Amino acid sequence: PISGSAPEQGVSTHCPYCSLQCAMTLTPRAHAAGPVLEVTGAPFPTNRGGLCEKGLSAAELLGHPDRLTTPLVRDARNEPFRAATWDEALQRIADGLTVAQERYGPDAAGLFGGGGMTNEKAYQAGKFVRVALRSASIDYNGRFCMSSAAAAATKAFGVDRGMPFPLSDIARADTVLLVGSNPADVMPPAMRWFAAGRDRGATHLVVDPRYTATAAAADVHLQPVPGTDLALANGLLHLAVKHRLVDTAYIAERTTGWPAVKRALRQYWPDRVERITGVPVAVMERAVRLLAESRATMILSGRGAEQHAKGSDTALAWINLALALGLPGRPSSGWATMTGQGNGQGGREHGQKADQLPGYRMLADPAARAHVAGVWGVDPDELPQPGVSAYEMLDRLGSDGGVRALLVMASNVAVSAPRAAHVRERLRSLDFLAVSDLFLSETAELADVVLPTTQWAEEDGTMTNLEGRVLRRRRATDAPDGVRSDLAVLADLARRLGRGDHFDDDPRAVFDELRRASAGGKADYAGITWERIEAERGVFWPCRSEDDAGTPRLFRDGFPTPDGRARFHVVHHRDAAETPDDEYPYRLTTGRSRAHYQSGTQTRRTKALLDTEPEPSVDIHPDLAARLGVAEGGDLLLRTRRGRARVRARLTPTIRPDTVFAPFHWAGEQTINDLTNPALDPASRMPEFKVCAVALEAATTR
Ligand code: SF4
């Protein structure tokens, strides 16, 4: 049952989980235990009424018995939490941040945000750190999600909008290549667009070390060794050149940098690429012809290709292929990345990143600082310079030059960060830690102060989906007594820090300020109003004025680069940061499963999802399992240079025999990110979640 009052009729909003942001209706229903909200899929251009099991069960979270409804504090780290008033909890946070800054300097106080926060919260978090704290220390968990593809798109096209076209264009493409993306499991309602294309006769190809549900629905599956996608993309482009399949007119008219790329491709001869990737030359030959000889081709990238220490270069390699085939800007064609988190797109546009200001402006750019400082009513010289990225911030917590007092919002880094056991140790070393969350997450368990926050159906605001379409999140019920929005928390803290004049806690007022701050930037929201979003079923940015219809499709007439051309980049294959050896002889790759989401803070508490998937399992090939003496359902001990985990084995021929796959949604001895490698991509600071060397052994069954 919901704890607030029930609405009198159904309320339209969007799912709290992934970036597809499926539309749903929340309708009040009577129940013996009190009013509940029933979730049904709503007609909308993206999901057309479809919802996956996560969206359908989301209302379970509203009245969940684990829900935090009062601030918690503890008087010493080894003491239990006790309930506190909001005044005490907020003053403790203001004091904790202030004391750290007085002792160690302004950057010793910081904020770690999340890609699930509304645009308004993400914007306000960035402003709070720069204006109220005057600190450089802010970054967010989207750094672990989208940063490498974002960096690549910015370099190649001049702007990062995950999908530069509406999702529905997928149905009109004749050939679609998905690289490291598995929408059939993680975004099922999106599959209707792929299915519609297949019904028209389209051909689909999937690149994935696993034979996923998405691969099973495709025509061609390329199964590379994890961490070799870049070599595969270069190999395909080598073949396209060899067979004269590249679009020379497009390259001449719309791009720069091709001659150097063409020269560099000479070393990616097919036999060598087959040796690196494990993909047979004949399969590559077939794939490149399918891609090049179709009327409309799309290349869609996902975390499998991007979460690597060479993630940006890998995304650039696929973009090179798309440019050489003349795809970006053409109808039903192009390159796109399928963003993951609910507001993964909007969350990275408005200043949560260490180096960015709202509208994708760069913090180091004097003109950008002047514009945003003008909107914020502060002197540009007061704004700090860029800080360090997410993992670097976490790695240095509590140490010289690092953050000493941290506020975490909408993120559970104790489970979701790479080398998570080390991150938990760093969190424990802080002088002060405050966490705002719905539940006592694994990160909140380590805090000095925990704040109970509102959730999706209890708040108004906006989200930006994977297409760059700005949507309205609508309040359907009141939050339980004792719970406050993060916007109210930031405004109150700013007041206690002496900067309260600059902060509003009304989401519409914050959105209107965001519009002004983003005006003239690449992610320009100036013309987007809540009324327009309502009337037009979302508005695509850039939207520069209220007369501007918004921009569903980018790049048709040029790229937002100084000369209007897209850029090729020379990128070369290199080994993963860690490759198998005698001690750690196999590869571990990680990802999401169908029933769970991110660090599992919400989905591990949802009965309907636990009924489907009560615990994690590791995918292991039967041949490898036989060599290790592991039976179906038996416990497997996974060990890397950073830690160990113990998870049940699921024997499946769908995975390469040299690789195991594990989902990262679980905690305790099943915390897979205790194993993952924090080696960082030099361009984007993306950690290498998707491949590391692992030792495996059968464990005694529990
Ligand atoms: Fe929610 Fe994503 Fe499932 Fe849609 S696909 S219902 S947005 S989790």
Automatic annotation (TrEMBL):
Gene3D superfamilies per the UniProt record, alphabetical: 2.40.40.20, 3.40.50.740, ADC-like domains, Dimethylsulfoxide Reductase, domain 2
KW Chaperone (keyword) present: no
SMART domains: Molybdop_Fe4S4
Domain 4Fe-4S Mo/W bis-MGD-type: 8-66
Keywords tagged on the record: 4Fe-4S, Iron, Iron-sulfur, Metal-binding
InterPro entries, per the entry: Asp_de-COase-like_dom_sf, MoPterin_dinucl-bd_dom, Mopterin_OxRdtase, Mopterin_OxRdtase_4Fe-4S_dom, Prok_molybdopt-oxidoreductase
PROSITE patterns: 4FE4S_MOW_BIS_MGD
Protein name from the UniProt record: Molybdopterin oxidoreductase family protein
